[in-house]
Amino acid sequence: MAFKQPVSVLVVIHTPALDVLLLERTKHPGFWQSVTGSRESNETLSFTALREVAEETGIHADADQFIDWHVSNRYEIFAEWRHRYEPGVTHNTEHVFSLCLPEALPVQIALEEHLASRWLPWHEAAAACFSWSNRDAILMLPHLNR
C-alpha cells in the first residue's frame, strides 16, 4: 500500500446564489464536508481538485472552472487516519479551491466515502461542517471577487 501524501485540496462547490454542496462521511455519520482529497503522485493541485470532484460527486467540470484561492491550512491529522501516511507524519497542508456551478445539480456520491449529499445556503452549510477549515472557507464565499 502506498502512503497518502500530507497535501490535499478542499473544494467548495457552490451556486451563484451561494448554495453549497456538502457530503456526509460514511465512517462518521453526521460529519458533513465539502469535497476533499489528497494529491496523488506528482499531479498539480488543480488536477487533484478536478479529480476529487469527479470521483466524489460525478460532476465533470473543466479545469478553468476551478478557482485556486491561494489559501492553505495546516492541521493535525486525526490519529485514526495517520496509518495512511508515512510513519511520523502528523500534519496535512490543505489547499482551498472553489467551483461555481450555474445551479444545484444532483450528484452521484462515492458510496465508499459518503452516505448522502445536500445543498444548503452558505451560512447553514458553514454551520453544518465538522471541519474548521471547511467552515472558514464557506464563510469567505460571500466576500470573494466573483
Q: What is the CATH C level class, in words?
A: Alpha Beta
Derived from helix and strand composition plus strand pairing, the structural class reads: alpha+beta
Total domains, how many? 1
Named CATH topology: Nucleoside Triphosphate Pyrophosphohydrolase
- What number is the mean pLDDT? 95
The CATH homology group name: Nucleoside Triphosphate Pyrophosphohydrolase
Written as H for each helix and E for each strand, in order along the chain, the element string is EEEEHEEEHH
- N-to-C span: 41 Å
In quaternary terms, these chains amount to single chain
- Approximately how much beta-strand content do the residues carry? 25-35%
Q: Name the poorly predicted regions.
A: none
The percent range for helix content is 10-25%
Q: Overall 3D geometry?
A: globular
Protein model, in words:
This protein is an alpha+beta fold and 146 residues long. It has one domain (7-143): Nucleoside Triphosphate Pyrophosphohydrolase. The protein is built from three helices and seven strands, in the order E-E-E-E-H-E-E-E-H-H. The strands form two sheets. Strands 4-1-6-5 form a four-stranded mixed β-sheet, with helices on both faces. Strand 2 (19-25) and strand 3 (32-33) form a beta hairpin. Helix 2 (122-128) runs antiparallel to helix 3. The chain is globular and about 45 Å long. The mean pLDDT is 95.
